[in-house]
Amino acid sequence: MKVKRLIKLIISLILLALVLRLADLRALKETLLAIPVSTAITVVLGYLAGQVLSSYKWWRIAKAGGIDVPYSVALKSYFIGMFVNSFGMGLVGGDVARGVLLAHGKQVKTAALASVVADRAQGLAVLALLGTLSAALLEPHGMHPDLVFILLAIGVVILCGWFAGPKLLLKFVKPGNKLRDKAEQVSKMFPHKRSEFIIITTLSITFHLLQIALHWVMAHGIGIEISFGTLLVAIPFVNMFSSLPISWNGLGVREYSYATFLSGIITNEQAVALGAIWLVAITITSAIGGIVAFITKDFSVYLKKESLASSA
Q1: Bond from prior residue into 145 cis (ω within 30 degrees of 0)
Q2: Reduced to 3 states, what is the DSSP secondary structure of residue 42?
């Protein structure tokens, strides 16, 4: 096991242990066993639908930047990337893998990787601003003002970088520089056209609202009385922290975040139950990428190329 993956696993176990230390194990067992099968199935299918929607948004970003591939290629690349992220297969991370796969053998690997960065950044900005707006409109929410300010700052900084970053990049990488072509490819991956920006932002908002709605389904499935408005404020924080590359699939971080940001509303046992359902949804959806990778053999072919390129 690589050191990086071992560290992630250790962090996950430590944070999960912190939550479990304060939980009643008997109550936890009862909570887990009481999860309705219908709730779990709904969350898995909803999570899968969300990832399909997210892959479409990524494809639109890449297409707007000049990468002309069918949506089916982006969909396949996206799910294989999820598989790599979840199960730690291969020599490269899931985001790099889907960028390489999207390039599809063309000389646009830099642009394809930039499209992944753009997709991540835009999604993070929308999530941060959605949480900030919800906190401003839905008081009282119990969230510390400093946390809301941090969320706002993240969203604003990313949006400023989205519009100013490409211009600054081209300003510093002058024409004639050997990296100019790559800089131009990267700058195109951050669409400035109003109509396209509105479309991808709408897709991103829909994706995040779907994920928050799935949390409402989970909560009510295990008997938690919580308003959708409360989740609109809390879940952006949970999703941002659990998406940090410091744990395995957000394990431990997610449960700790549930217990922290929904403190006084849910028990530690319920926090673990919410995390368990979400982890099942991630794992099953990511496994689909593994099946696709096995059938198409794209995964092994492109990672071999990447491995050869990195060792050259």
Answers
A1: no
A2: helix
Q: Is the separation of the CB atoms in 192 and 163 below 8 Å?
A: yes
Q: Report pLDDT digits (tens) over 122-172.
A: 999 999 999 888 888 886 666 778 878 888 888 888 888 888 888 888 888
**Three state DSSP letters for 177-239:** CCCHHHHHHHHHCCCCCHHHHHHHHHHHHHHHHHHHHHHHHHHHHCCCCCCHHHHHHHHHHHH
- Residue 283 CB coordination number (10 Å): 13
CB distance 234 to 147 below 8 Å: no
Q: Which residues, at least 6 apart from 219, have a Cβ–Cβ distance to it below 8 Å?
A: 226, 231, 266, 274
Phi and psi at 240, nearest 5°, equal: -65, -45
Cα dihedral 297→301→304→305 (10° resolution): -160
pTM: 0.87
